[in-house]
């Protein structure tokens, strides 16, 4: 199914107000009151974060495109931006979305629980919340399950990458994966003739 810019704006506006703005407000309050290092708002080791993030963004973009091809064959229809402008609008929204989701699920949940209850609790709770949260957005269970393929690696990376905790690298990976799975990825697949 081809989407137009008006279709994208129609879901972005309420999503922004009901989800991204409140998430951002929570992150700002936590940072303003406690300034916890485990939240990951610093750059960490910039060389490590950028190497992981840029390489991972490309790898996850490609992997997400390929996964979308397989899932589309299984479930049928796929929303594809009809124009370059709509694809760009969606890409911009997903780039905005990635750090906001990461500060909540990886920074606040995983980082906070890791600091207070250990890495196993943090990784499990942060990843489970991230994956199941997509069901609240009306995603089909097969697509919700697919988010695990991003949720687990970024949770492990947030914990294991050397240097101070940082959301930078995993945010880039998250944005790459989302853009491969939604909007830009399906648009590219249609342009290449992989999907119709």
Low-pLDDT runs:
none
Q: Over all CA atoms, what is the radius of gyration?
A: 17 Å
Distance between the termini: 9 Å
What is the total domain count? 1
What number is the mean pLDDT? 96
Helix content: over 70%
Structural class: mainly alpha
Annotation field: number of helices: 8
The oligomeric state of the chains shown is single chain
Largest sheet: 2 strands, parallel
Strand order of the largest sheet: 1-2
Beta strands, count: 2
Shape label? globular
The fraction of residues assigned to DSSP E strands is: under 5%
Question: Which H/E pattern describes the elements?
Answer: EHHEHHHHHH
Short description:
With 196 residues, the protein is mainly alpha-helical. The chain is 78% helix and 2% strand.
List keywords for this structure.
2 strands; globular; 196 residues; two-stranded parallel sheet; mainly alpha
Report on this model:
- The N and C termini lie close together (9 Å).
- This protein has a two-stranded parallel sheet with strand order 1-2.
- It is globular and about 50 Å long.
- The protein has 196 residues and is an all-alpha fold.
- It has one domain.
